Amino acid sequence: MPHRFLAIVALCLSAVFSGCDKSKSKKAEAAVPKTEVAAERVSWLTDLDEGIKVAKAEKKAILVDFTGSDWCGWCIRLKKEVFDQKEFAAATKDFVLVELDYPQKKQQSPEVKAKNKVWAEKFSIEGFPTIMLLDSNGEPFAQTGYEAGGPVKYLAHLAELMKSNTAEGKAKLAQGKKDEILVRGYGEELEKLITPLLEKKDLAATEAAIAKFIKDKAVTGAAKVTLSVNARVGSVQTCKPGDHAAVLKVLDEVIADNPSDLTGELKQFRAQVAAAQAADKDKK
Fold first, then answer.
1. pTM of the predicted model, to two decimals?
2. Pick from 22, 85, 212, 243: most CB atoms within 10 A?
């Protein structure tokens, strides 16, 4: 039965939004390429309160790695491919580095567990790895996660995100968090509405129901983009599993129907789907 379509598409979008799914983590860990590990690793704090103190004193931003160090495959990949590489030491010029760990097997004191839980709730952390960028006062201005390409590419990515360390950037991130909550609530409501249609594999009726729901709820902006993609791509995956062309059609329609400043990540995802489609054709 096609339940949890939002969870299905969340996995599909993981490369863009960088969430770690426990069922996929071992595969991700096994796929870690052999890379040269730095002889001297950069120093990471494990207490964000301490990190804020240091950041204020050194007038730096803060990079917080929310990780599952002993179970999350994408977290392990990010550490090995980026954070453990000697080139990443350059990040300490701009950032105080803080690692907040949420392990499954590694021992932690009750105090550390409780404190880390508070931070995860404060920043609405829902997937691992999540990389939060904070100003020296601990106010968030950007969020990212796993990015392929190694330390040099990741440093360039961080440099771009640093441009959001402004009042406007912080407001945009805060609005994005509000949109996430809104989309989650609407997503649960919409799922109940379209599940009977998906069980019948009636994609046309499902698409019509999604469009009507979004119109009736007057969902706009980034929330509309996310809800549309989650619902429509999830529905296509349920009714036409493995059909890259159908997914690309949905993505093209959502991209065309929304302002370009809201579809940047969606365009990256589209490129990934197109690459997967090409790879499948090469295999045949």
1. 0.69
2. 85
